[in-house]
Amino acid sequence: MVNNFSIAVHGGAGTILRSTMTPELQSQYEMGLKDAVDTGYKILEAGGSSLDAVEAAVVTLEDFPLFNAGKGAVFNNIGGHEMDACIMSGKGLEAGAACGVGHIKNPVKLARAIMERSPHVLLGGVGAEQFAKQQNLVFEDDAYFYTEQRYQQWQDALKEDKIRLDHSEKKFGTVGAVALDQLGNLAAATSTGGMTNKKFGRIGDSPIPGAGTYANNNTCAVSCTGHGELFLRCVVAYDISCLMEYKGLSLKEACDLVVYDKLVKIEGEGGLIAIDKLGNMEMPFNSDGMYRACRNNIGRYEALIYK
Question: Which fold has domain 6-296?
């Protein structure tokens, strides 16, 4: 008998308004989400690991220029790209993460390499890039990461000397995936280009195990997207696991409590995707929209943007 298996992906949350969304753009986003969820699902369907599935799904999202990770990463204050990523296995709580890295085509692959081929969990900046070179990961030049949309967002933010979060158009561009494989192992991965016009080497919740990314076979796998500072302060991903483990809440109850109550109380805007050890999936968000998709082996298959 095949155990239930499932995967969910997200491409960020925030002020995603129907009024500014063209049908063409909406179908592009939905296609990008479906490509990612299908890529991971095929691995699970063939009996592959949840770890391989979330990594492959996030690579697909990193390579898709409309999402703020990898190729579509936003510009920082000095016109560069600083990317963060994390991957975590629910089986033994192994995790790997990288923060503040540039020129690496797929930061999630670096996170996986750190988890499996280094004694560390989190590497940052120049040192993380040195390690990536040793692991023969693919590097790209600035032109690869350039997209006109991101460049214009940066120019607008520079004029106002604001980080994009203070701007009228709040988009928390992060990508992520969570999966449960046929052996009952959970995994989560998250990748981001951070905030437009960010300064001082700012790092959000995405690469921090327990804050933006978490997986534990006893409970759930979670990948977050939102206002990173608030998600860090709430240790959101771990909090959901804790509510399940220590309070006996269901995945839905835990997600709803954190996203619609705890985060809202401190004005923490955003959302998350989560899967529990039975294959149940939740994709709650308290913002106007969240790019999200999910698929399982018992017929659920959807790609959504709005509530």
Answer: Glutamine Phosphoribosylpyrophosphate, subunit 1, domain 1 (3.60.20)
Catalytic hit among 174, 190, 213, 225 = 174
**CB of 223 closer than 8 Å to CB of 189:** yes
Q: Is the dihedral of CA 153, 26, 299, 285 positive or negative?
A: positive
* SS3 call for 306: strand
- State the amino acid at position 89 in one-letter form: S
Give pLDDT tens digits for 219-250.
999 999 999 999 999 999 999 999 999 999 99
190 is catalytic: no
Which helix (H) or strand (E) covers residue 244, if one does? helix 236-247
Q: Taking the CA atoms of 138, 139, 144 and 150 in sequence, report the sign of the dihedral they define.
A: positive
**What's the pLDDT score for residue 2?**
65
75-104 pLDDT tens trace: 888 888 999 999 999 999 999 999 999 999
CA distance 41 to 276: 16
CB 267 within 8 A of CB 294: no
